[in-house]
Structures are given as C-alpha cells and as structure tokens.
Amino acid sequence: MIFSLAPMEGITGSVFRRVHAECFGALDRYYTPFLAPPQVGSSFGGKAYKEVDPERNQGLDVVPQLLTNDADKFVWATQVLADMGYAEVNLNLGCPSGTVVAKGRGAGFLRNLGELEGFLQEVCDRSRLPISVKTRVGVLEDAEYEKILELYCRFPLQELIVHPRVQKDRYQGVPRLELYGETLRRAPFPVAYNGDIFGTDDMAALLEAYPETRHVMLGRGILSNPALARMLNGGQAATAAELKHFHDKLFCAYEEEIGGNAVFRMKEWWSYAKYSFADPQVVHRAVRKARKVGEYEEAVERVFQTQGLSAEPRFGGVLGGCFLPGIPATGPVRLPLSARAGILVTPTSSGLEPLHGHHPHARARAEPQAYCRSGGHRPYRRGQHDSLHRALPQGSHGRYGRRRASHPGRPPYLSA
After folding, report:
1. Which of 58, 96, 213, 230 has the fewest Cβ atoms within 10 Å of its own Cβ atom?
2. Residue 203: which H helix or E strand, with range?
3. Cβ atoms of residues 415 and 355 within 8 Å
C-alpha cells in the first residue's frame, strides 16, 4: 500500500514534510502544495522555488503539483522540473477555492471539458515528465463525472488521484465512494483514493469495499494525527512525548524559516492537531490567543502538561468517519463535520437515517433547545480559526445566544 501526503496550501510545505519524515518516518510519496508555473523562459522563484528545491526535499519522493490552465506554461514547467531531477508532475484539477475556480483552474477547469481535453492533449504530447492528475468528480453534481472520467481515460496518465466530492461540496458531505469504485473498474492507468481517511477504521472500511486499492492520499487525517500512516501500517499511536518532540522541531524549523510569523503558521497546524487531544476545545482556547513567541510557548507547555491525548485521534474529534464504522446500536449520533456538517442520524437495521429530515435546520425547528459545540475548520481559508459554538439555551445572554436569537434563519449545527 502506498501512503502519500496530500497537498495543502500553506501547511504541508517543505518544512512540514521534512520534519514529519524525521519524527514519524517518511511516507511513500509527498505532493507539494499547488505551484503556479513560471513564465516561459523563467525559473521558479521565491516560495515556489523553496517547495521544489532538491536540497530541501532530499531523501523524500516529492511530486510537484501545478495549478494552471495554460498548456505552454505547464509544458515549460515540466522542462524546468525535469532538469531539477523530478520524475513526475501532478496537475491540480481538484482545488475547490472560489478564487481558483473563478479563473478556470483547479476544479473550475472541469466546467469546460472541451478546453480541458485540448489542454490534456497538448501537455501529454509535449511534457518532459509523466503527468498524474488529482481531481474532483465534478463542479455541481455527481452526474458530471461520467464525461469527466471518459475524458481522462483517453489520455496516458501516470495516475489519477480521485477525491470523490464535487467542487461545491468543498470539504463537506460524504465522499462518493461508488465513483471511486467506478474509476477503479474503468481506468486504464493506476488510481489513488483521497478523502476522509481519518483512522484505521476508515481505512479498513475502504479496503473492505475496494480491496484493489493500492494508493491512499492522506491530508487532514495526518495533520490531526501525525502517526496516522504508521498506525495504518499496523504501528502504534503517537505518544505525548513524540507529539511534543514533533511540535518543537516543527516550531523551531518555522522560526528559522519565517521568524516571528512562525506562531501564526503553528496555529494553523493546531487547528488540526488539537484533535490529537481528548478535549480539542480546551487546546484551541489555550493556543488561539497567543501572539508573541513567549505567550505561545507558555500556552503549548500548559497544553502538554494538563491535557491528555485522545484515545482515538481523528479529524473532527468524533468517532465514525465517512465510512461510519463503530456506530453504536442505538441512539442518535453526530457524524464528523467533514462528513455531514452536524446532521443528526440514528442507526437502523438498514443503515443510518437522518433525524427530522436531512438538513440541520429541520432539527433546529423541531427541537430549538438542541445546540452543539463544533470544532469545524475550513482548510481552504488560511488563517481562519474555528468558531466554537457553546451549548446555550435559545435566547440566553452571551455572545452566541444573543446572536442566534436575533438570527433565527441561521440555526446552529446539532449534536447528540
């Protein structure tokens, strides 16, 4: 089984890759956060060069990812990367960011399959390197994927990495595993899976459904649990000492790289790493107010001294990911925010059924006293901290209760 690190802009850069490999062992493959190709005749510069600098990636199998809809720039970039010693390049057709999609790049390129076909034809004919693709399954609806997959199958791709959500989903909703399965059946090239593998139960369920899976890309799961790949290979969970050592090395490396801004970069990491602890909210509150290095170091020291690790660290902090293993026999449960955005479901003999309809608004109207504490994070918006909703009776005083009472059209997400 191949385990790779997903490209997550601003987080899984060269510093993170190097430190994670030193502390938890190298993954089989790493994909850089997306890079804009340089102008034809130019080289990568600034931050982009740091991502592809061979010295910074020494000892790791790194695949540069390019984000563009300009075939000439893409082909030129493959020449530059080939001269730097890279053996593969990845095309980003999955980024759901609104600004990227508006420019017809990332998942936005899927809106115009005619242009995409011309682009792929040109780059496959002229590229110096084999081309893999990371894709969503559409922009608005699942039905789009039939034509998208048919298009991919006409080209000699090195690999197709499928994140089975559409662009409008962002990171919400349940991945459409059946579309991944359809890709496995039809694709004449290797296929990889990406999406909501947060624990060993998720991996086991994926392999049970699709035992031919050979490559899984890990993103939010490995940021929430740095030892995830090791656990998926049958190893042990991270200890508090390991996690502290990893944190310290990562923070030190960021300080060397960006100075005082390292605190803010680390707080992005904490928005995921808090789920390694038994009480993510306490961890979040301890770290979020730190601005200076001294304040931050004191806050982190308190976290490691006072907070225990989660028995099963996973993104979202809720047992039962998109594959729904380990659901109790009775009683309503809340799926992770990444899976159902707080929708309440209850187990039945035929599966999981939503309570009071499929949307949280319906439940809010039926039981207005039901509130939850959600720790959702939107990784595509850099620097955005979690909104921690508190359990308050409707209309009660305090910032959250007052806001909700005055905005009945925006009910809270729900939790059992």
Report:
1. 58
2. helix 200-209
3. no
Q: Which amino acid is at 227?
A: A
In whole angstroms, give the CA distance from residue 228 to residue 225: 5
User: Of all helices (H) and strands (E), which one includes residue 16?
Assistant: helix 14-24
pTM: 0.77
Task: Flag whether pLDDT at 285 surpasses 70.
Answer: yes
What whole-number distance in Å separates Cα of residue 264 and Cα of residue 290? Answer: 9
Angstrom distance (rounded) from CA 103 to CA 69: 9
- C-beta of residue 337 within 8 angstroms of C-beta of residue 210: no
Cα separation, 36 vs 54, in Å, equals 18
- Secondary structure element (H or E) that encloses residue 141, with its range: none
Burial class (CB in 10 A: 0-12, 13-18, 19+), 142: middle
Q: Tell me the per-residue pLDDT of 188-246, one tens digit each, with 9 for 90 and over.
A: 999 999 999 999 999 999 999 999 999 999 999 999 999 999 999 999 999 999 999 99
The contacts found for 96-105 with CB under 8 angstroms, 24 or more apart, are: 96/136, 96/165, 96/167, 96/168, 96/169, 96/170, 96/171, 96/380, 97/380, 100/67, 101/139, 101/167, 103/69, 104/69, 105/67, 105/68, 105/69
Contact criterion met (CB below 8 Å) for 31 and 159: no
Please, what is the end-to-end C-alpha distance for the chain in angstroms? 36
Nearest to 65 by CA among 18, 134, 10: 134
Q: Quick count: other Cβ atoms within 10 Å of Cβ 321? A: 27
